[in-house]
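Researcher: Before we compare anything, I want clean individual predictions. No alignment, no superposition, just each chain on its own. First chain goes here; please echo the sequence and then give the structure tokens.
Model: Echoing the first chain and its structure:
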Amino acid sequence: MDVHASITAVLLFILAVLGFVFLFFFVGDLRKNRENMEKETSFFLGSLISFVINFFDVFGIGNFAPGASLYKGLKQTDDRLIPGTLNVACTIPVIAEAFLFIHGVKVEPLTLVSMIVSAMVGAWVGAGFISKLSKEKIQLVMGVAMTLIAFVIIAQVTKLVPVDGTAIGLHGIKLVIAVIGNFFLGAVMTAGVGLYAPCLALVCLLGINVSVAFPIMMGACAYLMPVASIRFIKQNSYNRKLALGGNIFGTIAVILAFRVYLLISGSLPSHALKIIVICVMFYTAISMFYSLYKEEKGRSKHRDIE
């Protein structure tokens, strides 16, 4: 077994352990609160949402932007709970993705491990911060972050971000920039904003080959999500019914999508899908800002009456 295969095996073993630790906390929380699951949430609709967003996540589209938009648009949960719900509901599906994809592409171990660890630390810090924010601040953070990431994807689609790098690893100041950048992306991901697009842009700007970016961004997400999700669970800051359906049906979607991926050799029209994601992100951002505006207007009217 070569060095790359050995390190990959160790990484996947650690990821499996993280997955079981997440399930320990998640199942324990579900059992403790089985009598007071969210009545306003549709298990069927939430599961369908998870199936769709995780299916397309396999092709690098991301599941957080469309997930946040559908949860909000279909009134499945309170805005304050969207970040935690997305993280908890997508944890096992994303771990499944990592197991299916991460061993297939060769990337320098130092780059892969350091970027995974930095994203995990960022997620732990970010989840602790996000879980304590008010609904209004969550709306503001998500609105701003969705807008910024949408512009990042636009830069990718229009090829303003280079995608023709050849490196399979980073060294020196480039590695330092990548590690710091992934720390902040891990933190922002806990606000309900996906890591795939900005991570892809970051490593491509630093000269990484685009195919090598996939195990980096999938690995970072797979490792940081159990860490962040455990914190959201402990803070009681997620929708249990959506998370339960999400982990079950999202994982089924990932397995089916992987079969499709193999059949079509990953040739899904991702360019067109990314344009759809851009529209979804702008729609979600505008919805968050509008909700924030309405609530602030309502509070001002209430103060005027008093």
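Researcher: Okay. Second chain, same rules.
Model: Second chain and its structure:
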Amino acid sequence: MDLWINAIQGAVNQGILWSIMALGVYITFRLLDIADLTVDGSFATGGAVCAVILVNGGDPIIAILVSTLAGCLAGWVTGFLLTKCHIPAILAGILSQIGLYSINLRIMGKSNIPLLSTKSLYDWGYSAGLKTTQASMIVGLLITVMIIAILYWFFGTELGSAIRATGNNEQMVRAVGVNTNFTKLVGTTLSNGLIALSGALITQQQGFADVKMGIGAIVIGLASIVIGEVIFGNHGNFLVRLIAIVTGSIIYRLIIALVLQAGLSTDDLKLLTAIVVGVALTIPHILSNRKQVALYKKLTKEVDENA
């Protein structure tokens, strides 16, 4: 029983920390309608920068802030390739992702950096009698709430609204004088900053940074978004959408944890992720088709009764 409780607790913790990455993916994938594949690289960049600062005796908070700025820079490069070099979004992201792999190796000096004897944001938990998982869950939740509040405020401003409008109808936004290249640049920069922040928090929580730690991050982010949308529906309230992403991230991690505890091999984790995402993407279409069929039957019945 304790094993299951620890697994669920760890899954919730991971879901909260990874949800920050999912919020970053949401900005490009849903708000800007851009498939930005920089994610796998910028996530590892956040972890790499954070690890190097901590190993050299840096403060954990400073490490988090610098990691976020490094992710913003990576996102800016992707935005530059997209807007100034006119490279297709998916290719611009791939180019940045590939380049970041080598850059991350340069930053770290090796493929893996252990952080067992360094400071972390979660050290206060020891003095409070908490486990690392519990301490990181509390810190992660506080940071996530703060980020949701900031995003909700920012995307209600003129610039934030312009970014959202760019993804909805770019031609219309241009017609009213908005520089869509600038909104895309800001969007990709902000997105990858959040992704790197998530990478830094997870690096401190797991006690190491690895150059390959970001592989598959984009799929996890998309799974969190889609699961949240399936549960909450296409709600018009922006705040509810942000909360849905965090909820989706936690549910995704719970699904993975429960299946692994049930006996699935960790070697099948990628396959399980693909199945979860595939099912989550399919459910909305099935529900939509069922509603259309029900509506058609209702209209047909009314026509027959009136005939």
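Researcher: What stands out in the second chain?
Model: The chain has twelve helices and two strands. Additionally, Strands lie at 112-114, 208-210.
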